[in-house]
């Protein structure tokens, strides 16, 4: 089995990474930074987002597993003291025992600017905000105008990302088995001139939405943990991607258990 480790960079995560490499060598796993079968993320959810984008061109053949060393690890199945147990199960995997693979929907983004285009994938969420004022944007659903938005911004999240920024905006938590994306408003202006839905919208996999910039404005686009300043945006198309991200489940860890552990326990 080929593996790669990406850690958060703090002392604990670096030490765990070194421990993992040592155990991997002893168990016959092979380090491969280009074509790993499994990428181990050691840190928090931000580390997993970094791992996803590092191997974004190989998500169809690469699976991820998370080791939690931060305050909240929604994507992490393992604690910092469970590295030997994880390694033992990975060795069994390498010897032919097949673990469960959980595949989650992600978002396809097609960003069109006057200066060019960018197509990419998003694991958690995409947001559009203004740098120096309110955002003015037209939102179309399936090529039909839906609303004219004015406010602080718009958040488009995947089901696995529905527990992140989307939840703080009042959006609903969506199980990752549901292939959908969610559109949530960020502090929309609603009066006699500007009207929006005021609630989040859930679009199924065969639908898409387009967000059109409707004035000259300096915008900040975020794709998970990445921020991109844009002053010439034309539109952004958002839809459920054909690809999915895969996580190795060496032991049961149901989604609703993750939600309870993250927000209630």
Automatic annotation (TrEMBL):
Known function: Involved in the regulation of the intracellular balance of NAD and NADP, and is a key enzyme in the biosynthesis of NADP. Catalyzes specifically the phosphorylation on 2'-hydroxyl of the adenosine moiety of NAD to yield NADP.
Q: What is its main location?
A: cytoplasm
Q: Where in the cell is it found?
A: Cytoplasm
Pfam entry (one) = NAD_kinase
One annotated GO molecular function: NAD+ kinase activity
Q: What SUPFAM superfamilies does the entry give?
A: NAD kinase/diacylglycerol kinase-like
Q: Which cofactor does it need?
A: a divalent metal cation
What is this enzyme's EC? Answer: 2.7.1.23
InterPro entries, from UniProt?
ATP-NAD_kinase_N, ATP-NAD_kinase_PpnK-typ_C, NAD/diacylglycerol_kinase_sf, NADK
Query: Could you say which protein family the record assigns here?
Result: Belongs to the NAD kinase family.
Question: Can you name this protein?
Answer: NAD kinase
Enzymatic reactions: NAD(+) + ATP = ADP + NADP(+) + H(+)
Record: active site: 45
**Record carries keyword Plastid:** no
Keywords from UniProt, A to Z, are: ATP-binding, Cytoplasm, Kinase, NAD, NADP, Nucleotide-binding, Transferase
What organism is recorded for this protein?
A: Paenibacillus turicensis
Tagged with keyword Hydrolase = no
Q: Any idea which positions bind NAD(+)?
A: 45-46, 50, 124-125, 150, 152, 163-168, 187
């Amino acid at each position: 089995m080929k593996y790669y480790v990406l850690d958060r960079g703090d002392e604990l995560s670096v030490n765990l990474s070194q421990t993992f490499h040592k155990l991997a060598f002893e168990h016959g796993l092979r380090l491969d930074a280009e074509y790993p079968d499994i990428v181990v993320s050691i840190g928090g959810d931000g580390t997993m987002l970094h791992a996803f984008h590092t191997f974004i061109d190989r998500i169809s053949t690469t699976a991820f597993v998370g080791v939690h060393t931060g305050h909240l690890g929604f994507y992490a199945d393992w604690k910092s003291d469970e590295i030997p147990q994880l390694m033992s199960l990975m060795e069994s995997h390498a010897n032919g025992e097949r673990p469960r693979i959980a595949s989650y929907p992600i978002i396809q983004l097609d960003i069109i600017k006057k200066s060019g285009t960018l197509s990419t994938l998003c694991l958690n969420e995409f947001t559009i905000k203004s740098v120096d004022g309110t955002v003015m944007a037209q939102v179309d659903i399936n090529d039909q105008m839906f609303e004219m938005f004015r406010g602080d911004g718009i958040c488009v999240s995947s089901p696995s990302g529905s527990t992140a920024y989307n939840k703080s905006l009042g959006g609903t938590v969506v199980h990752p088995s549901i292939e959908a994306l969610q559109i949530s408003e960020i502090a929309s202006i609603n009066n006699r001139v500007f009207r929006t839905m005021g609630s989040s919208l859930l679009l199924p996999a065969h639908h898409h939405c387009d967000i059109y910039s409707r004035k000259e404005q300096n915008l900040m686009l975020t794709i998970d943990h990445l921020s991109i300043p844009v002053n010439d945006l034309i539109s952004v198309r958002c839809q459920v991607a054909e690809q999915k991200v895969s996580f190795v489940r060496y032991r049961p860890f149901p989604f609703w258990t993750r939600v309870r552990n993250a927000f209630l326990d």
